[in-house]
Design goal:
By secondary structure, this protein is of the alpha/beta class. It has a single domain, classed as Metal-dependent hydrolases (TIM Barrel). The chain is 50% helix and 14% strand. The chain has 17 helices and eight strands. An eight-stranded parallel β-sheet has the order 1-2-3-4-5-6-7-8. β3, α8 and β4 form a beta-alpha-beta unit. α5 packs parallel to α7 and α8 runs parallel beside α9. The longest helix has 19 residues. It is globular and about 50 Å long. The chain starts with 16 loop residues before the first helix and ends with a helix. It binds zinc ion. The site of zinc ion has 6 residues, from β1.
Length: 355
Amino acid sequence: MLTSAAQAPLSAAAATYATLLRLPKVELHVHLEGAIPAATLLALARRHGVRLPARTEAEVTDWLQFRDFPHFAEVYQAISRCIQTTDDLEQLTYEFLREQARQAIWHTEFTFTAWTHFHNWGLPYGEQFAALHQARQRAERDFGVSSLIIVDIPRGYASPQQALSMTEQVVLAQASGVAALGLGGYEVGNPVAPYWAAFALAHEAGLPCVLHAGETAGPASIWEALETGHSQRIGHGVRCLEDERLVAHLREHRIPLEVCPSSNVCLKVVDHYAAHPLPTLLAEGLYVTLNSDDPALFSTSLTQEYYKSHCELGLSLATLAQLSHNALAASLLSPTAQARLRDRYFAAPPATWAA
Ligand SMILES: [Zn+2]
C-alpha cells in the first residue's frame, strides 16, 4: 500500500507548500459546516440578520479558530443559525467545493449534519439533499471536482428515533449523491449502540456506513463502530494503537483510517503536531488517509495537513502522494469512477505537478 521513501522516485523533491497545493488530492473526512469559508459565513449572517461577534472577514476567520471545546460548540451553533434555507445550503456547498478545487482536491466525501437544519429550521431532508446535489453538480461542471455526501447522525443530540427517521430519508437519497451514513459529535459517553437500528437499516439497504471512532474514546469505540455500526472506514481511529488485536484486524481487513492530525491536536488527543502517531500508523502497515476535519475551525486545510506532515512528521513527498492515492482507493466511488479520476488527474508524472 505504501512505497518506502527509499524506493520512491520523488523522495529528493522539495515538498514546498506550493508543490503540495498542486498535488492531486482526495479528501474523505471534512465537515461541510466546519469548512465554511469566512466570506460565506459573513454573507449568510448578513442575509438573515444574525449577529456574529466579528464584522470583517479577517475577524471572522480569527473568531472561528479553535480555543476550547465550549468555544468550538458556540461557533458551530452560530454557523448553524446562519444556515436557514436550502439556498444557503446550495451556496455553502458550491463555495466549499470551489475551495476544494483551488487545492487540487479532485474528489471530496464531505460530511453533512442534515439533522441540525431539520431541527433548527424545519428544512425537509429531501429538500436539503436536493440543494446539495444541485451544488455538487454545478461544481463538477464549473471546477471539475467530484464529490459525494455522507449524512451523519450527531451523537448525543439526535434521539435514536429521530436518527432512524432521518436514515429512512437518507437511504432514499442515494441517487442524489448521498453515499453513506455517518456518526459524528462527541464520542465520550455517546456510544453507537443507541443508534444500532439506523445503521442496521442503512446496511441492509446497501448504504455504506462511515463512523467517527477512536479519537477522544479508545479502541472499544472502534470495535463498536465496526461491529454495531458496520463501519467501512473509521473516522480518525488513531487510538487503535492502544490495542494490538485491533491493529491486526484493521490491517488484515484493510480498513481505511481517516486521520486528521490538526483536529487531534486541538482536541488534545495528542500534545502537539510533531507528536502525532501518523508515522506509527504507517509503520504498522495501516491503510491511512489524511484529512482536515473542520478546516475553518482548526486553522487548517488539506494542503496544510500534507505540508505539516512533511515538515513536522517527516513524511516524504512520495509517501504523501501515496496517501492521496490511498484516499482515492478508499473512496465510495465505483471502480469505474475511480479509474476515470485516476486517469484524468492522478496519472500525470510527478514532474507535471511538481514543476
Ligand atoms: Zn469529523
